[in-house]
Design brief:
It contains three helices and five strands; from the N terminus they run αββαββαβ. The chain has 143 residues and is α+β, with helices and mostly antiparallel strands. The chain has a five-stranded antiparallel β-sheet with strand order 1-5-2-4-3, with helices on both faces. A hairpin with a 4-residue loop joins strand 3 and strand 4.
Length: 143
């Protein structure tokens, strides 16, 4: 006997695929906007005497996903990002986009993501890495 996927399973897969498409689209938009200094983005350096956390950028209380940009090629890996970000809380998902050297890091709560965003420690020790709030969230919220 063979097992057929349930309708609920198909709906869940479709929702996940739609969420991934939305996040990938928002990453492309964020990358273009960042050329002009996108709101809600900060550099991971201490150069200005502290973090530059500007307002905006989808940082609502339900957003638990960070958008990581300008990852050095040698550090653009799930293992590296998991090692760095797991100290701030429980990670639900880490997705790396090798071609663009970007990543999405989803925490189990907004508070955990906020702790990582506000941290004074450069991401992976590289002050050039940029962090912003992902638009929407990886659970299929609005973009």
């Amino acid at each position: 006997p063979t097992c057929k996927p349930s309708v609920d399973g198909d709906d869940t897969r479709d929702q996940l695929r739609a969420s991934i498409r939305k996040l990938e689209a928002s990453m492309s938009a964020d990358a273009a906007a960042a050329q002009a200094g996108a709101p809600g983005e900060r550099n991971s350096s201490h150069a200005s005497g502290g973090r530059q956390a500007r307002g905006g950028g989808g940082q609502g209380a339900d957003n638990s996903t960070l958008f990581i940009r300008k990852l050095p090629a040698q550090l653009c890996a799930v293992d590296s990002l998991t090692s760095h970000f797991s100290r701030f809380g429980r990670l639900m998902n880490v997705k790396v986009f090798d071609r663009t050297r970007n990543a999405l890091v989803e925490f189990s709560t907004h508070a955990e993501a906020r702790a990582a965003f506000d941290s004074q420690e450069p991401v992976l020790g590289d002050p050039g890495v940029l962090i912003s709030w992902a638009k929407g969230n990886s659970r299929g919220g609005p973009p």
